[in-house]
Amino acid sequence: MYEVELTVWRNLMEDGTQCLGEEQYAKAENYYSQALMLADQLSVPEIVAFTLRLLATARVRLGFYELAEEGFQSALRICQEIQNAKGISEAWAGLASVAVKRGKFQAACQDYEKAIAVYPTTSPPLRLGMLYADLGQVYAALADWHKAKKAYEQAQEICRANGFLKGEGELDVLIGELCFRQKKREEATQNLKHACWVFIQILDVVALTNALQYLALLYFEQNEMRSAFECQQRAVALCLKFDTKQIFSESCFFLSKIEQSINLVEEAKYYLDLSIRYYPEQDFEMALRYQNLANLLHLTMDYSMAEQYYLKSLSLFETLGEQSHIGEVCESLTLLKETLQQGEEHSGKLEAPDAKTKMQGGFPLDAMIRLAEFYEERRSYREALECYWKALEMGRNAEIATGWIETRVQKVSKKIRRRRTI
């Protein structure tokens, strides 16, 4: 009787769902709105409720929360009247998603619990797993770690029982993040390692890259720099295959930070330069990259390039009105100029007693000490230690007393060790 209308309705729903998957939410809403008018004409409760839910879903994505809530409520009433358990569950889940967007996490938990409670055993189990995962994320937002982990584990068990390896691995990452936030670092590491193993099995390069970077961050926070370096290096290599310029830039930036921590200065400069070349914006993050690279160039005595990058970072910080960073860069430039002046003064005094205390490029011992003190004052202890070690080497080569430099090396080393235990 209504075969033509039903066919048109089905086509509109398919078009809307395709747009929803492609994140074209306004188009999806338009298709679903047309489908709802036809559904009302067909007067089939299941069709009306289904259309209402998908239309409300599109409106959640568009930020039309009041309209979305009304749609889910209407779908819930219809499904309760016809005793459609799957529809009731999906309507409660939709209301939970609106509550999450509004920051009403307690209400969202209650709605997800209701959705799970009425979910039919005859319906697809993986959808139930998704509901548990969503519930876990809301509990995590509330910092209710025990309930969050329990929900994640239930979701993971469903994925495992149904052979859904990707879901199992993604939940490993979520549980790992949860453990990390509770400072359960060993458990977090185990979960992230298992996630990497899962993603390797299913050849999911994107998911593997994300898990590797999370594992690298975990190692970095635990000061296990060699392990952090290995994980992040693999992640950067994988990023080349698929990621956007910004993500690749961020991956290189983090790898550079790790390399600086293990004194791979030349490699750190290379990846920081890559990070700058691929970063798409002239914003605060780019200014930090310029400043960081300038510091490394200063440390390796490439003064002209260091000055260029200090000036680039200064220009951006001034545009952004970042006064504290402007002050830092100005101090760095002042120190750089003083270092250059001292080098010029020493260059004409080859017979002076301290002539042996210069490194290649005319860098004098006192300038290296000042650079170390500069970093130490700003609590950049690793950079300070690197400079003190170089100063110690210079002093020994010049056959002068170095006990006072050794004392400073020990002092800064102690500060680094103390920072590891915090």
From TrEMBL:
InterPro entries: TPR-like_helical_dom_sf (IPR011990), TPR_rpt (IPR019734). The keyword NADP does not apply. Keywords: TPR repeat. Coiled coil: none annotated. TPR repeats lie at residues 89-122, 129-162, 365-398. The keyword Chaperone does not apply. Gene3D superfamilies: Tetratricopeptide repeat domain (1.25.40.10). SMART domains: TPR. It holds the Pfam family TPR_12. SUPFAM superfamilies: TPR-like (SSF48452). This is Tetratricopeptide repeat protein. It comes from Desulfosporosinus acididurans.
